[in-house]
Amino acid sequence: MKHFYLIILLFCNVALYGQVDAYLNEYRITRISDFDKERNLIKESRHLSELLLPFFQDSLLHVRQKAYSFLYQKGMDVNSSEKAPYIIRLLKGCEDSNGGIAGQNLIWLSSFNKEDFTVDAKEQVDNLLRRDHIPHRKRLIMLAGYVGAGREMLNRQLIQPGLSSNERWYVHLALARMGDARSAEFCAQTVQTLQLNNDLVEYVMPDLIYTRQKILLNICIDHLNSDESACTSADPDNERSMPCGYRILELIAPVIEDFPFRTSAIGGLDVPDYRQALPVARQWFRDNPDYRIRMNSF
Known about the structure:
Elements: H1 2-30, H2 35-44, H3 48-51, H4 53-56, H5 61-77, H6 84-93, H7 99-109, H8 119-129, H9 137-147, H10 151-158, H11 165-177, H12 181-192, H13 198-211, H14 214-224, E1 231-232, E2 241-242, H15 245-252, H16 274-287
Antiparallel strand pairs: 1-2
């Protein structure tokens, strides 16, 4: 009976391989996606990473992109204990000759929990950091900081001559994320003199929040408490000056434990009235100076 079930499973896998192969070969020609069919194939294929191996090496970019999309979706769908081969293969894809695939894979990799990255995965991140030329290096550095990989390599980068100020910033952010107090202090000193405005909120504060370091989150909270109308509304048809606290609140809410507000799937605050939420948030931080920070997400 056991052998009978093994034979059934073997035929099922062969059949699914044929379906995946047929779908991607059809996609190669038409470039038309059938998302319902894709979801079904991804859900039913137990060993999808192996089934996709030929397509990761395909000569056509859109086929490789679709194969990595399948891989990512399956990796997010399986249990935590099964995610390792999907993460490893997405990291391998960062070596693709097309920079777009590397960039997309790095974005997808940041969607996994930190605990999903095994020792082998972290070693692969470290190896990628050691490559002289890799596209989207900023994203790779940030991923390394998130998962705790490549500390030695990043510290070595800081003493290399010719390191751009932009890359130095991201290396310090990554090291701060790994708990390096000197890098956190460097980031704090860099932003302390910057003027509060749209650019600071949009481009700098997400970096500070990424580090999950209180010295840097407290800078964001200080600006959250400012009543200065230093930002403009996001509505292009009705731009008006407003306190930056509303937008800062959207950024900081997802990373604070037991915070009274959550964000929606599209990033906005899940509250009926923003005007009431801001004073509540300010008071909450005053009442909770020892707030706890969520660490397991990017």
